[in-house]
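WARN  no MSA supplied for this record, continuing single-sequence
INFO  ligand: nicotinamide-adenine-dinucleotide
INFO  echoing inputs
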Amino acid sequence: MAYNDSKMWAIVKDRDDVGVTMKRVEIPNVGYNDVKIKIRKTAICGTDVHIYQWNDWAKKTIPIGLTIGHEYVGEVVETGPGVEGFKPGDFVSGEGHITCGKCRNCLEGHKENCKNAKGVGVNRNGAFAEYLVIPSSNVWPCKKSIPEELYAIFDPYGNATHTALSYDVLGEDVMIAGAGPIGCMAAAIAKFSGARHVVVTDFNDYRLNLAKELGATRTVNLNEEKLEDVMKQIGMKEGFDVGMEMSGSQAALNQMIHNMKHGGKICLLGLQNDHTTVDLETVIFNGIHLKGIYGRKVWDTWYKMTTMIEAGLDISKIITHRIDVRDYEKGFEAMLSGRSGKVIMDWAHINELEVKDE
Ligand SMILES: NC(=O)c1ccc[n+]([C@@H]2O[C@H](COP(=O)([O-])OP(=O)(O)OC[C@H]3O[C@@H](n4cnc5c(N)ncnc54)[C@H](O)[C@@H]3O)[C@@H](O)[C@H]2O)c1
Ligand SMILES: [Zn+2]
Ligand SMILES: [Zn+2]
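INFO  complex generated
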């Protein structure tokens, strides 16, 4: 067996069809201000599942040959010229949006709204690989006191945090549409932040149970119960104060709009499709605020993610599957089954995979 040490294992979108492949690719070079991270654990995102399934968004966005993945934790193994503050051996995660540093929002410190952001594992090679190279300005130092696997999900935990902390929820009634991993983590944060009722809707009992374990005070399976009846049962009179749309469903968004108090605030995280029709008449007459949420604030959100865990927030139950990355197909199966929270893939034994002649 010939072994080429300029190559590494990576999960690659290697075809114009469903699926991905673990294959050998070139190890990325370290440039000015870059940090090279040896990946220890990764998590599968809904985005990775879309790339796997090869939906319309993926077809128009993902170049064939791309290494996917953007949720990870690892260890610094090399730093390029110009890097300050990181050294080999540091335990790190990273922000998946590489921003331009030059547009107005970047200059004003609102990197989450950079107009030229490039996504790790979407527009450039990602983290489902033995090594990832990213600019040092995207690297987040991890603390040994926080479990490593939690850092592997800081990206979606960050979406949940950025959304849940967008509006004051102390003593308020919160509706979360969609009990996916992000909705469940948002439920945990809303409850931790002092919300009174945290009502989570979905059609999937497995996921609604997870939402309950994380912090939802009431879950609603919309196949079995009417949201309006539940609101009455729990003594709500005027509608939800804060809504978090985390399903990407038009029906969910309209249901939320119709059940907010006048002047209520809605955060939109779920990705709606091009044809979503929204009842703007109700939005206008009821004075409802709609706020689009993209990514995470850098580094405001990351700081709060860390300190909330240190303050006692527990999101660990969202991790439902832990697998060896050599079994990545099983990881995607679990995500596709609808009976999972987050799936963590461990890269510790990747080098036991047999290298064919290269
Ligand atoms: N804006 C951003 O930066 C950003 C980042 C990450 C993810 N997202 C999006 O956020 C959403 C949540 O992510 P996730 O990984 O938790 O998603 P997910 O797809 O795992 O979960 C969505 C859940 O919504 C449920 N659902 C579908 N229709 C519903 C309805 N009418 N009412 C209530 N629930 C309904 C589904 O059963 C599913 O459990 C997705 O749409 C994702 O694409 C956005
Ligand atoms: Zn993600
Ligand atoms: Zn920018």
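The pocket of zinc ion (ligand 2) is lined by residues 45, 47, 70-71, 155-156 (CB under 6 Å).
INFO  checksum written, moving to next record
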